[in-house]
Amino acid sequence: xxxxxxxxxxxxxxxxxxxxxxxxxxxxxxxxxxxxxxxxxxxxxxxxxxxxxxxxxxxxxxxxxxxxxxxxxxxxxxxxxxxxxxxxxxxxxxxxxxxxxxxxxxxxxxxxxxxxxxxxxxxxxxxxxxxxxxxxxxxxxxxxxxxxxxxxxxxxxxxxxxxxxxxxxxxxxxxxxxxxxxxxxxxxxxxxxxxxxxxxxx
Amino acid sequence: xxxxxxxxxxxxxxxxxxxxxxxxxxxxxxxxxxxxxxxxxxxxxxxxxxxxxxxxxxxxxxxxxxxxxxxxxxxxxxxxxxxxxxxxxxxxxxxxxxxxxxxxxxxxxxxxxxxxxxxxxxxxxxxxxxxxxxxxxxxxxxxxxxxxxxxxxxxxxxxxxxxxxxxxxxxxxxxxxxxxxxxxxxxxxxxxxxxxxxxxxxxxxxxxxxxxxxxxxxxxxxxxxxxxxxxxxxxxxxxxxxxxxxxxxxxxxxxxxxxxxxxxxxxxxxxxxxxxxxxxxxxxxxxxxxxxxxxxxxxxxxxxxxxxxxxxxxxxxxxxxxxxxxxxxxxxxxxxxx
Lengths: 202, 338
Hints:
The structure holds 2 protein chains of 2 kinds.
Chain A (H helix, E strand, L loop, with lengths): L2 H14 L10 H6 L4 H30 L15 H23 L1 H7 L2 H4 L4 H12 L4 H29 L11 H16 L8
Chain B lengths: L2 H27 L6 H9 L13 H10 L11 H12 L9 E5 L20 H5 L17 H5 L5 E3 L5 E3 L9 H5 L5 E5 L4 E3 L7 H7 L9 H6 L4 E4 L2 E4 L8 H6 L5 E3 L6 E4 L8 H5 L6 E2 L7 E2 L19 E4 L12
Antiparallel strand pairs in B: 1-4, 2-3, 5-8, 6-7, 9-12, 10-11
Helix pairs in contact in B: 2-3, 2-4
């Protein structure tokens, strides 16, 4: 339970286990929202927030209701409900976040626009929740990993957006223009990030 | 009941109930008051968020209409129909918007205008302009890298084979994105009834234009002279035309020595003289086309339909009203007498 442990957790989820570039989750918003730097940053912030809160909320539901070892309803095995329960929680969270932001910060709400509700179906959010459970993380670990993964997602999105904004002016062969070159770039970036998997943080 | 089943129902039902209640509470607690009229107007707007109205998007424009009293006619994509609906919602009288379309004031395609150097950089007009005004030898010419095409949200612009953007008149909504984007300021929003327009923006002197472009305006002023209208005048070596007026540019286009005017009409009507003609010959005197109207005084005159350019100058001078407009497309010949 020291700071170093959380630091390693964050670095690991940003670089070594980047959800987009190394686990290939959340590819849809990654390709869809990385055309402009502004929207990429907005989406990244929203996803980071939802990932962190969803990690915590799903961990609580799993530990206290679904997991037969620790639940408060007499050790009945309800783990098969994991996916549906998590999706309900994430969807409700996104709705809630949307309402709060709309009330408290109309500016941010306008900036995020349609990206907010899109997070509901972002598999990276569900992915981080499920992985937290699979790897038997504690509550705090889950929260930190959720936040770190969100930052990793933002990093991938922002890098991609920066590249794609420059790509607009490049002379690309006609068949490769648009999504094809984006896919090629994404795969090369993914290869580059694979280099981090050799990193050992102990 | 099976304990797994009952616990499933309790857990999922409980989670659903709690979250539902929380959301219901939140929707009340965090409800944002929106003027219902703003919402209604926003629904009426096309939602293209093109910014043609001068506001950040449709939502901002809807707000500006209700709260700041902005004009109801600013939405170019929505046009007349939307403007009318908004006016009705606001309880205003019906308003009239004039449909406009983007026009490119340059005809210097690759084969007609010369280059001054070979440009192999970023395919973007704004970047190219930074290098000595771009590769076109004409300082005012279209560079053809399609910056306007990329900013058009309605797919109304395409880059033609000749290196000039083409406007799809039906898709153009006059949002003005291309007008703002073009570093050479070659686009202009004109009434879509404008068929003939000047496709040159060069203020250079005649020789300088001739050297670099075969269709550039040399500022000779012939069009100004033949049009004989207040709506056209020569300003800084380039005719400045008020396209909103009812100026007749057919003759200007016909007389232009460098063919700097472009006529978009598919076919012009031509005039025809019927048997009422008593042979005054006034029409032959005013006709600008050589050999178009022929005949002997006292005998019925004839118009060569192949030579007639359809300018209609002969219509008002005929005392017998013997001249008719033939083969017109949306023209009502007799109206031109009045």
